[in-house]
Every structure is written in C-alpha cells, then in structure tokens.
Amino acid sequence: MTLRHPPCFFGEILFDVFPDGREVLGGAPFNVAWHLQGFGLAPLLISRVGADAAGERIRTAMAAWGMRLDGLQTDPEHPTGRVTVSLRDGEPSFDIVTDSAWDFISADELPDLIPALVYHGSLALRHPVSAAALEALLARCGVSLAGQPPGPAAGHPRESVADHLPGPTAGQPRGPAVGRSPGPASTRSPAEPSGQPGTGTGTRPLRFVDVNLRAPWWQAGVVRRLLAGADWAKLNQDELAWLTAVPTPTPTPTSTSTSTSTLTSTSALDPARRPASGPESPEEQGDDTRPGEHRDNTRPGEQGDAIRAAEAGSAPAALGLAPRGATEGDIASAAGAFRARHGLRGLVLTRGAAGALGLVADGEIARVSPQPTPLVDAVGAGDAFAAVTLLGLLHHWPLALTLDRAQTFASRIVQLRGATAPDPTLYQDLRLAWGLGDDRQG
Known about the structure:
- By secondary structure, the protein is α/β, with parallel strands linked by helices.
- The protein contains 10 helices and 15 strands.
- It has a single domain (7-433), classed as Ribokinase (UDP-N-acetylmuramoyl-L-alanine:D-glutamate ligase, 3-Layer(aba) Sandwich).
- The longest helix is centred in the C-terminal third of the chain and has 18 residues, at 302-319.
- It is globular and about 50 Å long.
- The model is unreliable at 149-201 and 246-324 (pLDDT under 50).
C-alpha cells in the first residue's frame, strides 16, 4: 500500500545500549516506522542525528531497509541519541541521555509535505526546539499540538504546548503556535481515519499519540494537553494509572489565589473514590506546569517515589489506583473514562501479560489475550503493537481484528533482543496472511 501522503513519525532515534554491550537501533517513532516499512508502507521518519559515526550507522541502516531519508536531519553540535537499557526479569528500564540530536529537530528543515498520519510520543517534546518543530508540522494541516482552537479569542493570545515547556536558551527558537480544526469527536467507523489526505476526506491528518512516559521526562499536565488535540492514543496500564492520579486543588477559605491539595484519585479503577464534583485535572484550575517544574501539588518527593515504585513494577499500587481484585470491567471503565475525558476517537491500552484493550467513541470495546511466547525481552513489544494498530487504521481493519494482529506481531518481537531487526521474514508471512503482498515497497 503506497499512500499519496505518507504516514509521518516524529521524534527520537537512538541506540539502545544493553548490559552485554550490544547496541540496537531504537526510539519508539523509529521502531514503529521501521515495522511499517517491513509491512510494505513507505513511512517518513522525522528526526535528527549527530554528525558522528553513530549517525552514519543510522543512515546506513535505514537506507539498507529501504526507508526514506529526507526527514532525517543532521546536527553539527549535538550527538546521536543513546539510551542505556537495564533488564530485570525481561522488563526494561531506560537511562536516556539529555541534549541529544533528536532534542533539536529543526522546524526549518522539515520536508515539504502534508502527511496522512502523524505519530509522536511525549518524550520527543521534552525540549522546546523539537516541540516547536512538531507544532510547525501540524500547523500545515490545521492540527494543534495542544487541542487549541484555530485562532485566539479576542484579547486572548493563542496557547502553545511550547509555552508549557522549559524556555529555550539563547538563539533557540520557540516556534509558532498552532490551532486545531474543530470537528465532532467521532462520526465514523472505529478504524476509519477521518480527514486523512489521500482518503478523500480532506487535508487533516490523523494524529496518534503513543504516550511512552519515561521518568523524569514527563509532566502530567503537559501530557494531558498533548492528548487534548489527538485522535487516537496508546498507553499501558501503568501509564493509565499515573495519568489518572490527578491532584485535585482545594481553594482555601481565605484566598482565591492560593490552594492546598492532596493527591486524590479520579480513576475509574476505583469509582467509589472519584469526586462527585469539581475539577478533574489541574489544567482546569489554570495549571501551568512545565517539565522540570514539579508543581503537581504532591508532597516533596512523592511523585518521584511513585514513579520509582512504578518502575519497580508496582505503579498502580504505589498510587492507590488499582486495589486488589479490580475486575476487567473496572479496567475497561477506567480506560473508557480516560478516552472520553480527553476527547479521543480511539484508545489502545496494553496490559502486558493480560493482553490489550481497545475502545472507540461509539462504545465498541475489543480485547485480545497474549499468545504463549518465549520472552527474550519486552523492549519493543509496545512499539510493535502500535505499528500494527496504525496499519489497521490505515487499512480500515475492524478494531478487534486490528488488536488480534497487533498482538500476533508483538509476540514475535518479544522473542528478539531489541525492538527491531533487519529481517524481512519477520513480516513476509504476515503480509501474505493479511493481504498486504509479499514484496517490501521502498
């Protein structure tokens, strides 16, 4: 399938460095684009590498796999990204090097095109330079990075996600603010990507946010703003718990400008603890949290303790969001409330050994269970699942079929060390079985 307007993948490209010293190409946008290339699409990766040997290795690998290179920028000052991966019982944790080339994706060097689909996560927006580049890409299509309307109201300047990021250093542009085309939450079939160029529904691309929270490079307020302008999102069950642990500000009786609060769960995983009324998020109280500013109204160190506990495998328990005995219905309710709260047309929730859940705005829910598979490592499981989810959206597959195929492919990837491999046989039989042909298209 060759699209007249390509799917675009924006964000990090780097080397995952494993405990045994092996270096494997990675970064969620890169991994997902790599898989879609293997499935016969011609995706465009927009990222940045250093003018170094690691950057040249990336270019060589992408060219050999048949991937486009016109979205890959070269940074003369910052090195190609690296991540140190630690494995515990097969589960990864990550030490992500700061000020890497992909933090400085330039809006001035973006390819001149309008994409069919834009995929990005939260990690690539940790620096205002790359955040401005993504805003510029979306601005061409009238799509907002933060769910803002197309223009400012009288007397009110338009808000940009870059306004909620750390200020740029001297000489680093913040980039333009952008608006979003208004429209109904959903008036189409579950897997139909309305408004995509090349589908006969206009020029608006589908925007897919793969949350991918990586401590300490996220703030709940910023992530919620990203979701406010998205069509689809993917996150795992721990991320759902983190993002629904919302500090609820309570104004003091003596002042309208200050408040006190406690960490109060609004998760549907524990419906009895949801507030009967009042704001569901700090943004509704004018929260202006920036990454690096821990103004989440938790006690000092509380958020960090929760994140560390989460990375140790007890995220829901650490935040009090998943009491023992939570049912499948509780989890589906939590995911459904999250989808509705953020105005998403679709949501995919991955659940590790419990499989995955998909929900769409018309109320359809689909579930898939994992397949018995030897586990080598789980580094690329979520990216593999995301890749086939996007494949299903682009091919208009039914939701249940999309999830089943995504689980099939993810089960293959967890048998590998690292998230990708230059092996066409990983894709060929699935392409035939799914009616996609058996020859890779470059």
